[in-house]
C-alpha cells in the first residue's frame, strides 16, 4: 500500500507558526469632541455591535444605534492586544489588522470620509479606505478593510500593544453615520508541532484508499493524493463507502432514459402512489424510508433532493457546517452578503450560499448521500450547484466575496457525481446550464428549472437527450420573483414538449408547469408529456 502526498514529501517535525484571528472592541476613546453622541443609547459603545435595525441597502433611521462623526472630529479609538483571549501575541507577531465597519453616509468625492490606522513607527495616520464609490446614503454591509499590502501590521501596534483607529470626515457638511467599528487582529505565534505522517493522516480520517483532503494534527490543510491501493477484486469505494476498499454486490444503478416521466414534490412527505409518473422526486429529509419503499413497491424510481450548494439553517444536520462555510469572517451572518434571495425569516428559515471548496462541506454532502443510500433512494438531486455563477453577482466588497471559479464548480460537481456513483446512486445535473458540455458525461440525467422561459434548453438536447438521458424540466406560471408567464400549452406544435425551443422531438424533454413557485404535485398546472 503506497502513499503519496501532493508535494511528494512526508511531513516532518518542524517549527511552525500557528495562526489565529480574533475580533476585538475598542477599550477607550481619546475624545468625544465634535462627535454627536447625544441621544444615542450607550454613547460610543454602540460601535461595538452591528445593529439589525440599520437595514443593509435601505435607508433606516436607527437613530439610537449609530454615532454621527462631524467633519471636524479629532478623536480616535484605542484597541489593545490584551483584549485578545485566544492567544497572547506580541506586537511583533501581529500579521494583519482589519477594520470591520458598517456605515451610512455620502459616497461622493465632495463629501467623503476615510478610515485610518495609526503607524506608531512613524507617528503618522495611514488611510485604509474611503467611502467614495461605496453607495450614497444607504446602509452598507459590514465591510472588512485591510491594511495596504505594502504595510507591515506590526508597525501599527505600540510596544504596549495599543492599536489606534479613527474616522476622518472629508469635505462637505454631511456627517458620517457609523453603526459599528471593530478590529480584527491576526497573528502568527511560533510553536513546535510534529506533523503526523501521511499514513496517520489517512488513518485518522478513516481513508484507506484514494485521494483525501482535510486538516492535519497541526491545523494545516493537507491533501494526500492516494491513501492506498485496494487489492482486486476490491475497489476504492466499491463497498459503498468513499475512501474505503470494498467489494459490493454487482452495482447496477437505476437508469433514467429519455422519455421517462416524472413528478417533482419537495413539500409533501406522502404522495399518492398512483400518480402518472415513472419517477418521483422528493425531499431527502422530509421523506421517510418507509414511504420511499412504498413508492418503489408501486414501481416508481425515487430521486431524493437535497441542497449541495447552500446552508439551510432548518435542516437536521445544520450544526455540521462550520460558520466559515457560509459566512465570511468579520461579517454579520444575519445580514451576510451570502444570504440567498430575499426569503430569510426572523427566527429561522434562512439560506446562505456555501463555499464548497471547504473540506467540511464535502464531509456533510457525503453524509447526505449516504443517508439517501440508507433510505433506499435510487438517485439524488443535488441543488444549487452553480454557486460560481452567482458569486460575481453578489453585491459584496473586499474579501467578503469568495471568488468561486468555474474550475472550482466543475471539481465540486464531479466530486458529487463520483461520490453518488460510489454508493450505487444515480445523480441528476441540476441547472448549471453553462457547464453542461463539461459535466454531462458524469451525470445520469438532468433536472432544469425554466430553461424554456429563458431559451436555454438546447444544450440538454445535445448532451442529454441525444445520449438517451432523461431531461426533466419545470416551469412556473408565477415564479419566486412573482413574475407571471401565461403558460397554457407548449407553443409551436404542442407535442414537442419544448414550449418554444426548436429541434426537440416528442419525449426529449418532460415538462411540468407549476401554478406557483411552490413545488408540489397538487400545484401542477399541466404536464407536457
Commentary on this structure:
This is Glycoside-hydrolase family GH114 TIM-barrel domain-containing protein. InterPro entries: Aldolase_TIM (IPR013785), GH (IPR017853), GH114_assoc (IPR049922), GH114_TIM-barrel (IPR004352). Residues 261-481 form the Glycoside-hydrolase family GH114 TIM-barrel domain. The protein contains seven helices and 27 strands. With 529 residues, the chain is of the alpha/beta class. The chain has three domains: 17-191, Jelly Rolls, CATH 2.60.120; 196-246, no CATH class; 262-310 and 356-528, TIM Barrel (Alpha-Beta Barrel), CATH 3.20.20.70. The strands form six sheets. A nine-stranded mixed β-sheet has the order 17-18-19-22-23-24-25-26-27. It is 12% helix and 28% strand. The model is unreliable at 1-8 and 491-498 (pLDDT under 50). The protein has helices spanning 198-204, 289-297, 359-375, 387-391, 406-422, 436-439, 458-463, and strands at 4-5, 13-24, 28-29, 35-36, 67-69, 77-80, 94-104, 113-119, 124-130, 143-146, 162-169, 176-194, 212-215, 221-226, 235-236, 245-246, 262-265, 279-283, 301-307, 310-312, 351-353, 379-383, 426-430, 445-449, 471-476, 510-514, 524-528. Helix 3 runs parallel beside helix 5.
The spatial strand order of the largest sheet comes to: 17-18-19-22-23-24-25-26-27
- Strand percentage lies at 25-35%
What is the total domain count?
A: 3
The number of helical segments is 7
Span from first to last CA? 53 Å
CATH class of the largest domain: Alpha Beta
Number of strands: 27
Q: How does CATH name the architecture of the largest domain?
A: Alpha-Beta Barrel
CATH homolog superfamily of the largest domain: Aldolase class I
Overall body shape: globular
Helix content: 10-25%
Structural class: alpha/beta
Amino acid at each position: 500500500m503506497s502513499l503519496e502526498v501532493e508535494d511528494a514529501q512526508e511531513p516532518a517535525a518542524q517549527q511552525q507558526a500557528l495562526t489565529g484571528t480574533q475580533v476585538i472592541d475598542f477599550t477607550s476613546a481619546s475624545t468625544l469632541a465634535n462627535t454627536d453622541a447625544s441621544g444615542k443609547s450607550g454613547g460610543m459603545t454602540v460601535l461595538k455591535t452591528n445593529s439589525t435595525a440599520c437595514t443593509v441597502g435601505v435607508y433606516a433611521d436607527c437613530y439610537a444605534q449609530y454615532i454621527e462623526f462631524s467633519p471636524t472630529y479629532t478623536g480616535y479609538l484605542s484597541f489593545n492586544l490584551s483584549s485578545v483571549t485566544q492567544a497572547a501575541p506580541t506586537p511583533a507577531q501581529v500579521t494583519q489588522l482589519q477594520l470591520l465597519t458598517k456605515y451610512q453616509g455620502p459616497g461622493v468625492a465632495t463629501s467623503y470620509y476615510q478610515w485610518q490606522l495609526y503607524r506608531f513607527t512613524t507617528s503618522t495616520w495611514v488611510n485604509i479606505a474611503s467611502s467614495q464609490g461605496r453607495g450614497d446614503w444607504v446602509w452598507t454591509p459590514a465591510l472588512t478593510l485591510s491594511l495596504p499590502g505594502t504595510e507591515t501590521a506590526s508597525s501599527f501596534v505600540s510596544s504596549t500593544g495599543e492599536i489606534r483607529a479613527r474616522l476622518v470626515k472629508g469635505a462637505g457638511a454631511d456627517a458620517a453615520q457609523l453603526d459599528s467599528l471593530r478590529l480584527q487582529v491576526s497573528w502568527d505565534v511560533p510553536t513546535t508541532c510534529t506533523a503526523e505522517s501521511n499514513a496517520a493522516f489517512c488513518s485518522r480520517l478513516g481513508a484507506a484508499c484514494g485521494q483525501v483532503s482535510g486538516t492535519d494534527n497541526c491545523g494545516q490543510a493537507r491533501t494526500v493524493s492516494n491513501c492506498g491501493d485496494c487489492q482486486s477484486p476490491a475497489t476504492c469505494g466499491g463497498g459503498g463507502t468513499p475512501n474505503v476498499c470494498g467489494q459490493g454486490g454487482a452495482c447496477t444503478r437505476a437508469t433514467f432514459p429519455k422519455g421517462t416521466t416524472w413528478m417533482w414534490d419537495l413539500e409533501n412527505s406522502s404522495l399518492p402512489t398512483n400518480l402518472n409518473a415513472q419517477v418521483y422526486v422528493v425531499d431527502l429529509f422530509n421523506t421517510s424510508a418507509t414511504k420511499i419503499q412504498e413508492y418503489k413497491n408501486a414501481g416508481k424510481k425515487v430521486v431524493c433532493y437535497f441542497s449541495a450548494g447552500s446552508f439551510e439553517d432548518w435542516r437536521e444536520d445544520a450544526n455540521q457546517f462550520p460558520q466559515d462555510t457560509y459566512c465570511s469572517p468579520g461579517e454579520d451572518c444575519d445580514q451576510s452578503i451570502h444570504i440567498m434571495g430575499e426569503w430569510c425569516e426572523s427566527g429561522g428559515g434562512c439560506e446562505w450560499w456555501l463555499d464548497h471548496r471547504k473540506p467540511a462541506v464535502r464531509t456533510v454532502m457525503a453524509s447526505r448521500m449516504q443517508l439517501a443510500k440508507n433510505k433506499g433512494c435510487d438517485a439524488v438531486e443535488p441543488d444549487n450547484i452553480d454557486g460560481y455563477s452567482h458569486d460575481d453577482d453578489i453585491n459584496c466588497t473586499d474579501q467578503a466575496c469568495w471568488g468561486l471559479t468555474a474550475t472550482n464548480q466543475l471539481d465540486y460537481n464531479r466530486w458529487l457525481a463520483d461520490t453518488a456513483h460510489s454508493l450505487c446512486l444515480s445523480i441528476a445535473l441540476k441547472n448549471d446550464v453553462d457547464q453542461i458540455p463539461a459535466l454531462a458525461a458524469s451525470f445520469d440525467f438532468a433536472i432544469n428549472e425554466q430553461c424554456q422561459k429563458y431559451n436555454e434548453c438546447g444544450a440538454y438536447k445535445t448532451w442529454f437527450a441525444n445520449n438517451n438521458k432523461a431531461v426533466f424540466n419545470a416551469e412556473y406560471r408565477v415564479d419566486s420573483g412573482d413574475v407571471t408567464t401565461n403558460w397554457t400549452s407548449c407553443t409551436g406544435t404542442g407535442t414537442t414538449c419544448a414550449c418554444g425551443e426548436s429541434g426537440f422531438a416528442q419525449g426529449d424533454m418532460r415538462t411540468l408547469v407549476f401554478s406557483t413557485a411552490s413545488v408540489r404535485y397538487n400545484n401542477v398546472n399541466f404536464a407536457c408529456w
